[in-house]
Amino acid sequence: MFSNLFESTTIPMLQEAVNFAQSRHTVLAGNIANMDTPGYQIRDLSVEDFQSRLKGAIEARRRPQLPISPGDLAERSTGPFGQISKNPKTVTRHDKNNIGMEFQVTEMVKNQMQHNLALAVMNSQFQLLQAAISERV
Length: 137
Fold this sequence. Notes:
Layout: H1 2-7, H2 11-33, E1 43-45, H3 47-62, H4 70-77, E2 84-86, H5 101-133
Antiparallel strand pairs: 1-2
C-alpha cells in the first residue's frame, strides 16, 4: 500500500537526482583535491547522460509495466550514473594537469543548487503525503 503511495509521486525520481548530485560532488571534490597533482586529468559524471536516463525512466513509468528484458539488466549493471568521463572543457597546463579551479568551483556550485532544489521539492512531496495520511488539508 505505502509503496504504491510513494511510487505515484516524484519522490523516486528526486531520490535519483539527489544521489547523482552527491556522487558528482564527490568526483568534483576529488578534482579540486588533486589540483596540484602533476598529470592529473579531471573527471566528471555526465549530466546529459543522467538527464537522458532519468527522462527514459520517467517515460517508462508512464507506460504499462512490461517484463524486464536482458538488455535492461545489462544497462543497470553499469550503474545508475554511467561512466566517469574525462572533461575536455579545460586547458591543459604545463605540468599536464588540466584542472581549472574556477570551472570546478562553478560546477560544484551548480551541482549544489541542483541538489538543494531536489531536496526542497522532495521535502514538499513528503509534507503533502503527511497531510494526506493525516487527512489534513
